[in-house]
């Protein structure tokens, strides 16, 4: 069965084994000797744990030095069972789960076999007990049961009674002697009281066999030909669930770490910190209205300075005259522009609607457009107009009912062609296509006040040209206003106009200040988000790595029972998938608290309907990444060191 030929093992400059040869065929075998005699080193070679030796070691003509990963898996899972001095059980698992662990790789796995084996060893009443709560004798019986369920050809026991009281030691020795009646048992010990005259004895000293006593061997079983140990996805998931349940506290910490990391990463992907920097602009926008983004183009006006935001306040007022011909058509379909409307002021307005005439109060103010309440802007080819919402109050119609009504409008325009204002009568028949809020917002010492401008009517190009013709105005170009889609678009339009020699009007200095501050806030907060996100990610990965590093002995126990690196990687990734699912549930439950915390931190929340899917994806992605990092520890596990037993 076992054949050792001229085997030597050196640690540093010292021989642990020195050119030993022996053969073990079956029955009960004792390898005895004092501490440091080399017996434990020999055990590790027999068990395939130590392959760094000279000479040859065989099990059924198979070289133990040349075992491949797959061959080791089969060797540990189906051919040999090892009972350790330190028991090498997984303390957080129950007795039942410890014993069942090797069977997940076995096609003959059954809970009944586990229960039968426990009953044979009189530990069936301990099935649901955590191993950490057992006595030494109980733990050793659990260790023996775990090896027996594999139905191995050989049981190797390393100082199995060293950590036990005399009564427990006697029970364990008797159990091993009973097992030796049906299979090969090799016991490594320094306790000569265990010896009897029916067993083969190999005595060692200073790394050499100094005496051998061979007895007639009993019957030994030979394992039937079986398939290589394999771990299906279903069984791997069962192992993962068992592990998570047994270490619920550890995995809860991992889920919490992933949840915190995801929350900060979500801030980055959703842009909540960057969005929070928009709050100042949004508050201003809310106070003044959409007109904050208006760019007004006039053929002439009186100005006290330029539009760049750096004008000299002591500069005297000057008349500005400029050619704006063609600009209306140029910006009508510009992607930066929300809409373009003529700012043609008409005084003394009277309208006839549904056969009834109504007088509109004259404000002597240029038309004011705050926002569109219904319909569309008058940017078509026909005679169209957007009227003030106050018209509905006057005529008794809702905003929706006003849309589509045809009105006859009359009023007056001032003709300045002579240099003096001449009031001229005008009129047009036009269709209402929109209704607007025409409230004017005025800032005074930081306070905003509103005034209604009821005679704010906004006409299409054809209506404006018709009325200017009636007023005998020489110029066919009228002042107009265009609304930018964003603050950045507004500044872009202003810069473009100035570059072309056109001076626009608008709240450019105010908007530029807000844009500049917003850009600075974005840059600073963006850096903060990156740092926080990286730190959160590093913490999660570090926790995963440290958790895996703490499990090295556990991984070694799995490996000595036939699990390969790929098996353990599959289990670990599934464990982190379960952690990810738990983190998603935790995110859903705690999302109101997360939102509240982020609002206090950034000024805006991160959790809404659209971000739940993003959060779920981030959690699964981060869980998978943590699982990969944890799996990187598995190949580094050295069973020889992790399952160290005895001194040599």
UniProtKB/TrEMBL annotation:
Give me the segments passing through the membrane.
Answer: 528-550, 571-589, 609-634
**Pfam families recorded:** ABC_tran, FtsX
Q: PROSITE patterns recorded for this chain?
A: ABC_TRANSPORTER_1, ABC_TRANSPORTER_2
Q: Which SUPFAM superfamilies is this protein grouped with?
A: P-loop containing nucleoside triphosphate hydrolases
ABC transporter domain location: 2-231
- Domain of life of the native organism: Bacteria
Compartments (UniProt record): Cell inner membrane
Predominant location category: membrane
User: Which chain positions lie within coiled-coil regions?
Assistant: none
Q: How does it sit in the membrane?
A: Multi-pass membrane protein
UniProt keyword list: ATP-binding, Cell membrane, Lipoprotein, Membrane, Nucleotide-binding, Transmembrane, Transmembrane helix, Transport
| CDD domains hit by this protein | ABC_MJ0796_LolCDE_FtsE
Which Gene3D superfamilies does the entry mention? P-loop containing nucleotide triphosphate hydrolases
Does the record's keyword annotation contain Zinc? no
Q: Does the keyword Metal-binding apply?
A: no
PANTHER family cross-referenced by the UniProt entry: ABC TRANSPORTER DOMAIN-CONTAINING PROTEIN, LIPOPROTEIN-RELEASING SYSTEM ATP-BINDING PROTEIN LOLD
Family from the record: Belongs to the ABC transporter superfamily. Macrolide exporter (TC 3.A.1.122) family.
Q: What is this protein called?
A: ABC-type lipoprotein export system, ATPase component
Species for this entry: Paenibacillus macquariensis
